[in-house]
Amino acid sequence: MGQEQRETGSAAALGQSSVAGDLVDTRRFQRAGSLLREALFELDAAGRLVLATPAWERLVGAPVHAWLGRVLVELFHPEDRDQARVLLRTALSRTDVPSRLELRLSGGTQPRWVELSVTGDPEHLGGVLGTLVDVTPRRLAEEAAATRERYLGAMVEVQRQLLAPEGSGDFYNAVLEPLGRVAGASRAYVFEFHRDASGRMLQSQRAEWCAPGISRELDNPDTQAWPIDQAFTLHQLEQLHRGEAVQGSPEDFGADNAPVLLAQGIRSLLVLPLVVHGESFGFIGFDNCDDARPWSHVEVKLLSGAAGALSLALEQHTTDALRVRTETALRRTEAGFHLLIEGFPDPVVVHTTDGMLLSVNPAMANYLGYQDPAQLLGRHLLGLVRREDQEVARRHLEEAQDGALAARSHEVPLVRRDGQVVSADLVTLGVLFDGVPARVTVARDFTERKHMQAQLMLGDRLASMGMLAAGIAHELNNPLSYVLSNLEFLHRALGPMPRPLGAEELLEYQQVLDDAREGSERMRQIVRQLKVFSRVDDAHEESVDLHRVLDSVAQMAASEIRPRARLVKQYGVVPTVRANEGKLFQVFLNLVINAAHAIPEGFTDEHEIRLISRVDDDGRVVVEVRDTGRGIAPELLRRIFDPFFTTKAPGQGTGLGLSICDTIVRALGGTIAAESTQGHGATFRVTLHVAARPTLGA
Q1: Gap between the Cα atoms of 623 and 545, Å rounded
Q2: Which of 268, 560, 603, 631 is 20 to 30 Å from the Cα of 174, by its Cα?
Q3: Global pTM value
């Protein structure tokens, strides 16, 4: 066989081997991906799908083969595609830290959210590896919690307007704006029913609120003296007479009315009946001119409560007691306020400023295991809280001053009638009740949200560990190298055969063993720090030595600090604090890493990160993390603790770090604040409570 034939045969064999290797890698990729709930995928240099695991079809709703060769960006909602392109470009230049972003999938009537994580493929130049994770349940839960809180604030504002002593009786304009805004409506309006000379029932518009850019229809002739049997179908009229809400698209309403509604740009509308003295008085309506989104069951229920309060105000206004102000009438009967909270799906209580329960809705009674809400009346709110958590609950109640907006939510364990402890998230607002300042507190079940927080905290820990992995390896490698070196020296020096050792040899070998033991101790400390940081026992609290935590953080973050700044420890004499060591480690590691990232590399002599500990005038322990970095702009400073807000470049931060720090510190009963002047560094201040001193036994 000639030389050329041998070379050709070798090349063919090599090509076959390469193809076989690619097939093996593909099968291993698919087999490994089948074990995960996330969809793993690989893209080529043009961003087209090359491989995907079986979870892809379950998440995307289309088989993998239908997507092979298609550009991944097409998977996402058109408004999110530019973000996806930026993320993929960022990933091409990074193979060390994954880039992450939450995006909406394209198609479907309801938005579906996924977390896209991508990184450059070190094995294939220009390629990208990534995962897709369905985060829709978490997003929906967060949106539902936020919606309920917004509606509660609007309901309290409506009640305040209806009870205002200085009110002119113009109830409509007083309540339409807060209700229209919270409902996300384009218009909010009130129609009243009246009869013509022949006795036919008509409807006429009396008041209106419009969002910016939406045309006003109050003076439109089509909104005045319109027969109600033309405006609504027979079935819809029956619903209104029964006191039920009606909603749908313009085509769902009366055939003669539909063109009028479409001409006003309406895509969906909600109508809630107003009933005065048992008779249909009219309705309050909401238009949506942006899309055909229906109002949810919870939204309809809450808005119906507001419509009921308005009906009651109108009823009182039209009785013989017209001279009595609406506020007095509503306070005397308490019906208006009860109408707002009785139908609220979350547990609600009304209490005096010092905590005595005045009103309890059925949801709260059921949540705490009571048959009748009256069983809770007259009790103190703090009596429903565990003794060790009463101080946290008291501080929360003090945040809601008379007439103030909602206090920041706090997690407070409540005790059920059977002794079981449930974790609740409390939100408190100041109101007037029976003419005196009072407060309304909503308790939302915290179980699901607490689980999500734990997952976010764990994800933040894993992200920090990934960022510091190289530095930790270096910190372990240094002592490990000289431990092994010393042991190797002893092994060679002692030799295979035992022999008597002189005094000088014994002294030298003792020093070698001491050095090896010191290196082993350093490695043991690093492993202990990793164990503390990775611990997920979020419920365990104990007396924690802050300086030990700060020292561990400094050692763990040394690789991030060393190229940028000097680390200065300015410790005062401070007592131990009541906390979870792993959580505090996470808080201060986040703050120190953020401080390091605010300083450019290569100017170590010009910058410093300073850790300061002291006791303030109130006896609380304060820790400050100061840096001499670029600082934070004033317009950004007030948002830094908001979830998912970040000033870092795409792919370099999720915006969860400081939000998680705030959640952890507040759960411990402490506070966290930031001060900064742009160009002159920043200071983050954490305040914690001292651990209770143990009592002496008898």
Answers
A1: 12
A2: 268
A3: 0.37
- Residues 222, 260 contacting (CB under 8 angstroms): yes
Amino acid at 654: T
Which backbone phi and psi does 170 adopt, to 5 degrees? Answer: -80, 75
345-442 topology per CATH: Beta-Lactamase (3.30.450)
Residue closest to 516 by CA, chosen among 549, 494, 538, 490: 490
Q: Is the pLDDT of residue 350 over 90?
A: no
Token pair listed for 111: 């938005």
Q: Are 408 and 429 in contact (CB under 8 A)?
A: no
Tens of pLDDT, residue by residue over 234-271, are 889 888 888 899 999 999 988 888 888 998 999 999 99
Mean pLDDT, residues 5-25 = 48
As a whole number of angstroms, the distance between CA 447 and CA 653 comes to 27
Please say whether the beta carbons of 455 and 467 come within 8 A.
no
pLDDT at 500 over 80: no
Q: Name residue 94's amino acid.
A: R
Give the class (CATH, top level) of 163-316.
alpha beta
Instruction: Flag whether pLDDT at 661 surpasses 90.
Output: no
Higher-pLDDT residue of 462 and 52 is 52
- The token pair at 192 is 């009243």
Confidence of residue 637 (pLDDT cuts 50, 70, 90): confident
Q: What is the DSSP secondary structure assignment for residue 540, as one 8-state letter?
A: -
pLDDT at 333: 44
Helices (H), 427-580: 447-494, 503-534, 546-556, 558-561
Domain ranges of the chain: 32-136, 163-316, 345-442, 535-692
| Strand positions, DSSP E, 230-331 | 246-248, 268-276, 279-288
Return left, alpha or beta for 630; rule: phi > 0 is left, psi -120 to 50 is alpha, else beta: alpha
Summary mean pLDDT of the chain: 77
Neighbours of 513 (CB within 10 A): 13
CATH architecture of 32-136: 2-Layer Sandwich (3.30)
Q: What's the 3-state SS for 310-368?
A: HHHHHHHHCCCCCCCCHHHHHHHHCHHHHHHHHCCCCCEEEEECCCEEEEECHHHHHHC
Which tokens go with 525?
Answer: 């400390």
Q: Specify whether the CB–CB gap between 55 and 36 falls below 8 A.
A: yes
Question: Domain 535-692 adopts which CATH fold?
Answer: Heat Shock Protein 90 (3.30.565)
Residue 87 DSSP symbol: H
d(CA 408, CA 397): 10
> What letter would DSSP give residue 75?
G
- Measured at the CA of 654, the angle between CA 648 and CA 659, to 5 degrees, comes to 100
How long a stretch of residues is the chain? Answer: 698
Give whichever of 6-20, 207-221, 526-540 has the largest mean pLDDT: 207-221
Using pLDDT thresholds of 50, 70 and 90, give the confidence band for residue 607: very high
User: 272, 305 in Cβ contact below 8 A?
Assistant: no
Please state, in angstroms and rounded to a whole number, the distance separating the CA atoms of residues 155 and 161: 10
Cβ distance 649 to 90 under 8 Å? Answer: yes
Nearest to 196 by CA among 167, 165, 227: 227
Determine contact, residues 290/186, Cβ cutoff 8 Å: yes
Q: For tokens 């304009």, what's the residue?
A: 173
Residue 612 has pLDDT above 90, yes or no: yes
Greater confidence, 99 or 39? 39
Q: What is the pLDDT of residues 311-337, one digit of tens each?
A: 877 776 665 334 444 444 444 445 556
Q: In a 3-state reduction of DSSP, which class is residue 8?
A: helix
